[in-house]
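#struct-pred
JK: can someone run the complex with iron/sulfur cluster? inputs below
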Amino acid sequence: MSRSIRPKLAVWKFASCDGCQLSLLDVEDALLEVAAVVDIANFPEASRAVVKGPYDLSLVEGSITTPHDAERIHRIRRQSKTLVTIGACATSGGIQALRNYKNVDDFVSIVYAHPEYISTLEKSTPIRDHVKVDFELRGCPINKMQLVELLSAYLNNRKPNIRSHSVCMECKLKGTACVMVAQGIPCLGPVTHAGCEAICPSFNRGCYGCFGPKESPNCSSLSSRWTDLDVSKDDLIRAYRSFNAGSESFRRESEFHEKL
Amino acid sequence: MNQEKPDTNNIFVIKKDSLAGLFENITKAGYEMIGPKLKDGTICLDKITSLDDLPVGITDNQEPAQYRTKQSKSDTSLFSYVVGPHSPKRYVFPPRHQLWQINRVNGDQQIIAQPLPKTKLAFIGIRPCDLAALKITDRVFKGGKYTDAHYTEGRANNFILAVNCVKPGGTCFCTSVGTGPKAKGDFDLCLTEVYSEAEHFFILETGTKLGSKMISGVTTKPASKAKLKQADKLLKAAEKNMGRQLETDNLQQLIYDGANRVNWEEVGLKCLSCTNCTMVCPTCFCTSLEDTTDLRGTTAVRTRVWDSCFNEDYSYMHGGNVRSSSRARYRHWISHKLAGWVDQFGTLGCVGCGRCITWCPVGIDITEEVVSLKKRIATKKAEATAKER
Ligand code: SF4
Ligand code: SF4
Ligand code: SF4
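RT: done, structure tokens with the ligand placed:
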């Protein structure tokens, strides 16, 4: 369909590394297509030209870690018809959610010469904890083809084909033999949300859980299996505390083992 | 593969080197060969081009949640392992399969049907359980009123060189369900490997005219009684060497009687709902349809993708999900395999290949689950009678 009015797209950044929004620039050939069908109205990583809101679609990267950001996200929500969060930071708090397990003031006093200049929140939280989110795109970083699929679904008023099953299923669709079964390598795939097309198992590595928990993850059963594979308690806790440390099920599982 | 009855009962002896000639004939006849190939320590089903691609001197060790292969230098046998994670399913019923495409051209819609598969595939080294599985998927996709054109066309272009199993694996139980270790037809050619330090030969059986044609010009000898006996002995021994057993007496009723959720709580705590069992199962055939568009909305594509009853989305209906727990999903799966399937298709949905046991990351064992269910029901009955007294 040729559209006379192109939807206005804005890209926003919170506490994050920029990797996810850069994947929009990294979609290669599809980028020209994207630019043709949407009006990239606010995307500081790509262009200094900023078109004022309101916006039809906002992509939000990063987690909420400061009082200022906790307010800013509400302003963005008010200006956005549809708001989609992209990446592990925005959907689960990111690697910076490791602070959630400790006292943040301790970090601030060690890291900064002038801790008094730092205004930060106790926890790093996903966008969904602050405003209504219309769709979440997982991953650290997101899969750029999933981003294109999401935009395409948005533009054509259809449901995005983004499945919430395990990484295992991606291994199987590809034909990759299970590294946990065939090589005894601990793998988070059975509890991890699909989306990466099982990159790590395809290279004989276990899954690191970049896409966070899948629908109905059974972490405790997987942990027992890891323990049988001689994974130490500390390593088990660390496995659940990476890019998606702030997600509910990974947090609960890691805390359970910490208390053992 | 042609479905006709074996035309003759031709049984030969063929030497390993002469198999190369057979492979050449298959290739010359225009087939692409799919056979066992070692990849990262696992026997996969992959494209092969010659005898040299087959794993030599490899044995496998399979247990719940564990698969390992071992290479022996002195061993020159070709088929001393059993099935790996792949089955012919991935080739006759691919994980992702485009069905059609619609293009918007000058305001009109132009529908482009996906051409039917034309590649002639020869399956090399397919085991009896997988032959039985193909028979089941044939029934599902080709039997009945509505047939699947893509599957049907693909299957019509298959050639099958089967291999009987003289060394069953640790999770195999084909004897229990009557599918192996010796193939009972449904092949074009079938081999039984006889290997020892002293001698190495294959019994070659033809199942169809096409099979007979394929061995023309290949050096074979009529099989002597003594050699046939040797092979038979191995297969008889294999029957008794299954790593697992499935109790099939009254199985369907047992499963239906055991539907109560309390019977599935324990396995529900263990099951990861990861889908591995359904993905590796040679008979699980569930799919979903994916509709995609391009950014401009000028092209839409419908693709059929493997799906699984262990996925939440799979049983999502208006208003919610009917099988939200692993417990419910596991119960559904085993009930379909071992009971519902019988009502639906007149056969068990399980051919005893053991893949779901080996490739389940937490080693849930379908045969064990039947045993525990039986015990649970018996205990409950005993308790009930005790109360009555
Ligand atoms: S390698 Fe990991 S993700 Fe893949 S099937 Fe095995 S456990 Fe699942
Ligand atoms: S249910 Fe398990 S043992 Fe039976 S055919 Fe499927 S994978 Fe093989
Ligand atoms: S039975 Fe095993 S393989 Fe199947 S879904 Fe459950 S954990 Fe995964």
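RT: quick notes.
The CA atoms of residues 372 and 378 of chain B lie 10 Å apart.
The pocket of iron/sulfur cluster (ligand 2) is lined by residues B 280-283, 337, 350-356, 366 (CB under 6 Å).
JK: thanks, will look after standup
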